[in-house]
Amino acid sequence: MTHPISIQLTSNFKPIPTDVKSSFGTAFTDHMFVMEYHEGQGWHDPRIVPYGNFDLSPATSMLHYGQAIFDGLKGFRGDDGVVRLFRPEAHAARVNRSAAQLCIPPMDPDMIVQSFLRLVDVDRAWVPSARGTAIYLRPTIIASEAFISVRPAKSYLYFVILSPVGAYYAEGNEPVSLLATEEFTRASPGGLGAAKTPANYAASLMAAEHAKKAGFTQVLWLDGVERRWLEEVGTMNLMVKIGGQVRTPPLGGTILAGVTRDSALTLMRDWGLDVVEKPISIEELVASVRDGTLEEMWGTGTAAVVSPVGMVGYRGERFQVADGRAGKVTERLYEAITSIQYGAAPDPHGWLAPVPLLN
Ligand SMILES: Cc1ncc(COP(=O)(O)O)c(C=O)c1O
After folding, report:
1. What is the pTM of this model?
2. CA 303 to centroid of ligand 1, rounded, Å
């Protein structure tokens, strides 16, 4: 189904960056997608307009109470020149799941996918082609009603912006180090942990600064109740291979249901690996380092795809993961997922959506 999306092209095209290999989220393309919601009217006026500032009242409720959600996905230019989005339907579904948790009215998932495809089509020239680079899509919904009181807003603004990106971590695909902290927690049962909402990222800043000061790349979040169950990494889901078995924490409402997590689990099951979604305690992780059964540890996420973990800090000690380098499954997953993304390998699960040439 094609939705009537109006398009107003810019008359002021920006220079397209020629080297984005080591930048993430700093340059934005020429256009953005915008749509509004008003009570009684529903979502309306989908349009692509020149990238630019919004005119917002200082009383805009999102600015005060944080009623907002976002998501993040990527598009890739293959060696054949075709631009493909990776699992846009899965991201559209998560937009609506996050929205539901924040009392934001749902959108037609097909409209969300169309907003991705049409915008990337308009700014197609911005999609970089080097391996490791991509166009990053950032769909966002904010409560746009101007009022100062705590209740769900009656109007919302949905927008999508695009940014050509390279590596997310300064380390590139080198192993990252994680600090498991008992001092800070990210989410607790009944909270917002499963939603992609700004509050979760605001809550992570101080812990991330703390980890950086202690010499680690990111935080390894422990659960908010017992502070001993591994949850996820800064902006990635977590996987470990212990004694031949791959394990990842189950989706219990406190962690984000990562699309890369799901893709990795699907591929590893295709490969016949022993894979379980089962809680992992920090004590068990430490014991597996000590007895040599911890074979690999890695994070999964749209930004870095798969990121090897080389070191974990806990209670003042540092634990090296195996030989501290990327393990076999980690490397195989990175190769397999990126090969699918760049159209260099078959796509048996139908994860890719080629961006049709309409403009
Ligand atoms: C907190 C958190 N966990 C996990 C992920 C990984 O999710 P995905 O694979 O869908 O990018 C992200 C990134 O989106 C995240 O922000």
Report:
1. 0.96
2. 8
